[in-house]
Amino acid sequence: MFDSLSSRLEGVFKKLKGHGKLTEKNVEEGLREVRMALLEADVHYRVAKKFIADVKARALGQEVMKSLTPGQQVVKIVNEELTRLMGESLEDLNLSGTRPVSVMLVGLQGSGKTTTSGKLAVYLKKKGKKPYLVPADVYRPAAIDQLKKLGGQIGVPVFPSETEMDPVEICDKARTAAQKAGCDVLLLDTAGRLHLDAELMAELVRIRDAVMPSDILLVADAMTGQDAVNISESFDKALDLGGVILSKMDGDARGGAALSIRAITGKPIKFIGVGEKLTQLEAFHPDRIASSILG
Ligand code: GDP
C-alpha cells in the first residue's frame, strides 16, 4: 500500500529541521504530498484543490510548535481542516413532525436503496420505533417483491403496492395503513434508474411535495467514487436532501467519496452500508474519515 501521509511528510520536512517558520516553499512541498494522498483516496479534484488552498492559507508563516516537527505540524493542520469540513458530530435520521413521519429513500438503481430500506427498518426497530416499509417503485415488480421479502424476514409490515398504482397514491394510502397498524415511521423506497434522468427527478419531486417527508436520504454507492459525488450533487439540487447514506463502504476503504459529497453538497453522510446483510448499517463517524484518508 501507499506510505502514510505522515511518513511522507516527515521525509519532505526532514531537511528543514531547525527552521522556525513554515515557509511558502516547504509548505508547498508538503502540500504536494497532501494532494497526492487526497487524489489517491479518490477525493474529487475540485474538493482537493480548495482544501489545499485552505490549508496553505492557514499554514503559511505559522511558527512551528516546539513539540512538533514541521511535517507533524502540517499533518495537524490538515487533520483540523478535514475535521472542520466533515463536521464533528454524528447525524441521525430526522424524525421530527406529526406521527407517522416519512423518510424518503432515493438513488440510482443498484445503489442499494431497497437493501438500505430494510437496514433502516432493523435500525429503527432496535431503537423502539415501529417502521413501515413502502415499495414505491412501480416500474420494477421485482423491487416490490424484494421489499416484501425483506419485510417478512425482519417482521416489519410492508404496504401491498401494485404496479398499476401511482407512487403518490401509494404513499398516501400507505400513510393511512401505517397509522392503522400503529406504525410511526414510513420508509419510502422510491424508484431508481440506471442513470440520472429528468423524468425520475420530476416524479421524486412530486412524491416529496405530496408526502413532505421529515428526511430525504440519497443512497449512493461508495464504489462509484467520483460518480457518487456528481449524483449527490444532482439529487441534492432537485430535492434538497437531508443527508446521504453511502452503501458498499465495505468495498471502498478510501473514503474520498464521503469527503467530496460532504464538501460539495454540504449535506451530512448519516450512515454507511458495510455489507449485504440487513444488520450491516453503521453510523458515519466523520472523524474516522481523516485517518482513513491520511493513513
Ligand atoms: P436498489 O436497486 O438501489 O434497490 O439496490 P439493491 O438494494 O437491490 O442493492 C443492489 C445490490 O447491492 C444487492 O446485491 C445488495 O445486496 C448490494 N448491497 C447493498 N448495500 C450493500 C452494502 O453496503 N455492501 C455490499 N457489499 N453490498 C450491498
UniProtKB/TrEMBL annotation:
GO cellular component: signal recognition particle
Residues that coordinate or bind GTP: 107-114, 189-193, 247-250
Alphabetical keyword list: Cytoplasm, GTP-binding, Hydrolase, Nucleotide-binding, Ribonucleoprotein, RNA-binding, Signal recognition particle
EC number: 3.6.5.4
Coiled-coil annotated spans: none
Reactions this protein catalyses: GTP + H2O = GDP + phosphate + H(+)
Protein name, per record: Signal recognition particle protein
Residue span relative to the full protein: 1 to 295 of 443
